[in-house]
Amino acid sequence: MARTTTTARTSTGLRALAGSGVLLALWLLLVAPAGAQEGGEERFGGEITVTEVLLDVVVTGRDGEPVPGLTADDFLVLEDGVAVEITGLTFNSYRRYRDGDRPAAVYEPGIDALAVPQPRYFVLFFHDLMRPDYVTLGLTAQQSIATQICRDWLRRDLAPGDYVAVASFDSRLKIQQDFTRDLVALDQALRDVMMRRDPERRRPRARQAKAPAAILDALPAGRELRDRTPSVGAALILLAGALGRIDSRKSLLYHGVGIGLGPAVADALARGNVDVYALDVTPLHAEHLQQVSLRTLARDTDGFFYRGVFPNALRDVQRRASDYYQISYRRDPQAPPAVGEIEVQVRDPRLEVRYSRRYRAR
């Protein structure tokens, strides 16, 4: 999911607590101006008229727990201030899976024990930390820890219906592995990230099952992909356009330090209905200016910011994507195919709602 993008006002203050954190913070401050413009280099286009819009909506009670069992009559959807007619509503819950592939024996009220939730798509994205200056600051070791945590998470916590892709940026966008449930292929893709290997040189596994959706089907290839993704901002904007074609839950787990993540990046991901979970790979004792970019990106896409890399972060991402409503409504096919402003309300004032406030017409 995503939220309306806003431009954050960054403070000129910079504080680091100890040791290498001072060097890291000063280095990030120096490179920030150059990276801040990267997000505007590539903008996703190709809009066409739509007749139906799909929204992912999370409804929680005052205790923060998801609330199942609502119907279309419990919601009010407005587009640009005008109420629209809801044409469909489904509730997707992954709480039915508690122990590997076995459904839970007891279900919460409002959860259909026989309903199979829609696929969830996770993109593990790594902003290149193998440059010599990153190595000096200890960031490469942090990324190595992050990839190991991802491997452990995939082996232990991948639920039925979860599909994972691995992508990275060094000098261009690389899709090390398109969406799959093949743990061997994903493990090799994570190793390739650390080795900065080009995915084109690795043969796909012959027995790898095809996922319901793919990133590469919507991306250019070869030289065109390289030319269109000269910066991490351009890479994420192009990736957002490809993910926006998938009508299911999409979460991007960004591992990096936040350089080059301008407002255009958050805007593109919000329009693609991609929620971003930003994992800051800098040491926990360091505070730096780019954390503002990471926090803003997570907030504006209705994701979450994690300071540091730790195993429970990935489980938390999985939990946040576990229970949501998908609401559909029809719009005038003659209306301009522009970005619309959406408001979703629940009629019960005791409930809170999170949703995508923007969509890209398709």
Plain-language structure description:
By secondary structure, the protein is of the alpha/beta class. The chain has a domain at 118-320: von Willebrand factor, type A domain (Rossmann fold, 3-Layer(aba) Sandwich), CATH 3.40.50. 28% of the residues lie in helices and 25% in strands. The chain contains nine helices and 16 strands. The strands form four sheets. The protein has a six-stranded mixed sheet with strand order 9-8-7-10-11-12, sandwiched between helices. The protein has a four-stranded antiparallel sheet with strand order 4-13-1-15, with no helix packed on it. Strands 3-2-14-16 form a four-stranded antiparallel sheet, with no helix packed on it. Strand 5 and strand 6 form a beta hairpin. Helix 6 (232-243) runs parallel beside helix 7 and helix 7 (263-271) packs parallel to helix 8 (291-300). The model is unreliable at 1-20, 33-48 and 98-107 (pLDDT under 50).
